[in-house]
UniProtKB/TrEMBL annotation:
One of its GO terms (molecular function) is glutathione transferase activity. Its main location: membrane. PANTHER family: GLUTATHIONE S-TRANSFERASE 3, MITOCHONDRIAL, MICROSOMAL GLUTATHIONE S-TRANSFERASE. It is a multi-pass membrane protein. This is Membrane-associated proteins in eicosanoid and glutathione metabolism. GO terms for cellular component: endoplasmic reticulum; membrane; nuclear envelope. The keyword Membrane applies. It comes from Mycena metata.
Length: 151
């Protein structure tokens, strides 16, 4: 049986992973609020074209729902990359995920509040994209190191 040795500072990785729960909770609250304002009943996932044509609130609901769904699509790979990278460099892994979350908050606000093009604002470009790339490269290199070490 092998033993996993968690590096010093891995608690930062745990905190960064946990912060995604708060991001999702905030997005959930936004979706719920926009659903109520648009009058979109459950279990309907999105407002249809007719509802969007007659209600700006329906379009806003769709954007809130889409940004939440998009975040859920990213999280599995982000979790894996953050943990793998965190095994070799926990502070940089946690910082990268934290910056991605900051960028995702800006993306969410920009997407929901205004036209869809607002989602790619300066904070998103500066935070989310470089941090995601850092996680990809860091996780790949960490995995290589673990395989090379025979762990």
């Amino acid at each position: 049986m092998s033993t996993i040795i968690v590096p010093t500072g891995f608690s930062y990785v745990a905190a960064a992973l946990m912060s995604t729960v708060f991001l999702l909770a905030g997005q959930f609250v936004t979706v719920s609020k926009q659903r109520a304002l648009a009058g979109i009943a459950y279990p309907q996932l999105y407002a249809d074209k007719e509802q969007m044509a007659t209600s700006p609130a329906a379009a806003k609901f769709n954007r809130a729902q889409r940004v939440h769904q998009n975040t859920l699509e990213y999280l599995p790979s982000l979790y894996v990359m953050t943990v793998l990278f965190g095994l070799k460099n926990p502070v940089l892994a946690a910082s990268s995920l934290g910056l991605w979350i900051l960028g995702r908050v800006a993306y969410s606000v920009g997407y929901v509040v205004g036209p869809p093009d607002n989602r790619n604002n300066i904070v998103t470009v500066i935070c989310a994209t470089p941090s995601f790339l850092t996680l990809i490269v860091g996780a790949t290199y960490s995995t290589y190191q673990l395989v090379a070490a025979g762990v």
